[in-house]
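Task: sequence design from structure.
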């Protein structure tokens, strides 16, 4: 059932993010496509992290950054999902957690709450700083990376 369920879930297109956190004095990242806005007051976001992922143990109780990847950053996504592309990864110091350079958006978060989500943990973070730029996004659809084109409407849509 899990393979069929994964195929069914793959019909829902998502953006691609890297969650970054400091651990052992070094920045670490995990590629995720389960990210969502939860609340504007207070400003909360949620990421879902597999309990089996190599960086799962680094998140509890630590500030983290959600780095929303641009279409040109597929190698970054692949790097943090286990296919090494170290030449694609460039870090910068964030206010409370490390950030990747050149991303479409960043959300620096302090830990708010963590919940058991079966084989994942759901981490809520309170957004304390954010930044964004224009450009095409990196998506994931049908088990493949895809380009999400920036709308040319000239209007910003907010939650």
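Answer:
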């Amino acid at each position: 059932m899990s393979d069929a369920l994964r195929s069914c879930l793959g019909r829902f297109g998502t953006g691609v993010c890297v969650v970054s956190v400091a651990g052992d004095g070094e920045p670490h990242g995990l590629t995720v496509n389960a990210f969502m806005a939860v609340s504007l007051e207070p400003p909360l976001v949620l990421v879902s992290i597999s309990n089996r992922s190599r960086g799962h143990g680094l998140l509890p109780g630590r500030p983290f950054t959600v780095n929303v990847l641009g279409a040109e950053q597929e190698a970054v996504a692949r790097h943090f999902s286990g296919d090494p592309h170290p030449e694609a990864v460039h870090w910068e110091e964030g206010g409370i957690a490390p950030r990747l350079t050149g991303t479409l958006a960043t959300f620096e978060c302090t830990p708010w709450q963590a919940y058991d989500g079966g084989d994942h943990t759901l981490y809520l973070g309170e957004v304390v700083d954010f930044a964004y730029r224009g450009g095409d996004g990196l998506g994931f659809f049908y088990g493949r990376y895809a380009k999400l084109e920036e709308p040319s409407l000239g209007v910003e849509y907010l939650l």
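Residues 16-133 form a domain with the Pnp Oxidase; Chain A fold (CATH 2.30.110.10).
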